[in-house]
Amino acid sequence: MTLDEKLKNLPLSPGVYLHKNSDGKIIYVGKAKNLKNRVRSYFQSGRGHDRKTRELVKRITDFEFIVVDNEVEALVLESNLIKKHKPRFNVLLKDDKQYPHLKMTNEPFPKVVITRKILRDGASYYGPFLPASLARKTLDLINRTFQMRTCDIEIDGKLPRPCLEYHLKRCLAPCVKELCKPDEYAQATSDVKLLLEGKNKELADDLEKRMWHFSENGNYELAAKFRDLRKTVVALAEQQKMAMTAERDVDILGFYQEGVRLALQLFTMREGKIVGRREFFWEDLDAENFNASEFFGEVLAQYYSTDYVPLEIHVPNDFEDRETLEKALTERRGRRVRIFDPKRGQKREMISLVENNAKIAFEQRFRILQPESEKVLGALQEILELPHFPERIESFDISNISGSENVAGIVVFENGKPNRAEFRRFIIRTVEGADDYASMNEAVFRRYKRLLNEEKPLPQLIFIDGGKGQINAAAAALASLDLEAITIVGLVKPPRRHNEISHLLRFGYEDKPIYFEMGVPAFRLVQQIRDLTHKTAIEFHRKRRETRDFTSELTAIEGVAEKRKMKLLRNFGSIERIAKASIEELKPFVGAKAATQIFDHFEKQRKLASTSD
To answer: Which end of the chain has fewer CB atoms within 10 angstroms, the N or the C?
Structure first.
């Protein structure tokens, strides 16, 4: 069916449309109250489209659409599809960091864990925690104070004795029926929920009531326990700063924009207290046609499709789909969610505060740090005689031992700074034995074939850890993808000194080595890139080798299947710790019989070792 025929047969229903280019790749996702009118509007010449839309229309060769029942469903589906496909012409939510949340699992005996992903799994999520160390400190407080379990075993109350965590007073031991009743654990769970929701005063009052109850009944040990708990909660409450009069969950957003760059700040307020902040940055906006209202509509829909939904969201600008988004978020939260664009009063003052923070973040990211980076990268461009400014640099290293556990590490630097979200690690799949040249060829080919398929940015400069052989292998991979224009530079190590660089080799100019001068800032940047690449490859190789050694060692033990191996690895972390563990320490994870077999296996090894000595 031709494009014109598809346009004629569009329904009048609400839905989502997906525009595609000549390669069949989705380049834009949009929603519509009326699919027929909205999609046809792109191809009507008299519509007066802005530059971005005109560029989009030039590339559209096909489209798909999905019909839904109402606008709310269309908005949710649009957000999910944008996150999945990351279309080139949509505003994409870009977060510098994935901040940790605390997750209370949906189990009969819940536990609290740190996570950076929010899933629709029935669990309760709290956060984000900024700085990230606050999440670890809070989790440690929960384990020490409220003694919720940390293990992965199935709790049925049938274990004969508790593990070490109980004796360290870090777990109530619901696994042993005589030690912890279900209602006692449920009370601890309820207390932790109040703590994580920021209801410190309510929790402190409840703990005080329990303290006096047990005191009046002569149970002074429990009374003392709840007295200490109350002290901890009150002390924690006093550490909370920036308290406001409002007692609702609120997110406050503000932004600062200049040209194609924008910094967005989001302050998270829980139970009337500012508890965290998130930062987002854009560097590729369409400055001529930037519309703050449209921008906020797209960003909010993407952000709250997975993150915690507060009861109120305060934004500096109203936007067209505000009411529709309110309905979608209300359904997701299960309570009424409101989005405000306050014009005066305390709420407007808070937005101004957030906007001021966004401006400071903008200055730090784009203006204060940029000149130094530009100077260093400009010098590097001159030293290497690069045709383009090296805004994006990628670096490759191969790691293996005699060809085993052969892996590649890839790091990415943007504007002279590491972009860790773009780092990649490859398992080399097509090369047998220790062939660094073939391994480098595979890594480079796979990396840029994928970037091309996904229409992602390509680097202006590629560093290869190695000499002529590795450089030629990388160049052959780029040539097969028609990417010869990208400059390749090899980092050559001096003999017997693997942690240094002696000189650089540019592909095509191998007879003109550039000798390394450590004192020059541009070369210090090269050393930093090389060290980080080497570290990335080595750490991945070690992790693969440890997993292999772990698996092969346990394979020799009868009755230890793959599932048990992984459970032991998660809970003990290394083969050395498993070898030193007692039967009682092993039993909660693999059962009594397998625990005895594992213990006996390593006990025999210890006896053989002592005999040989």
So the answer is: C
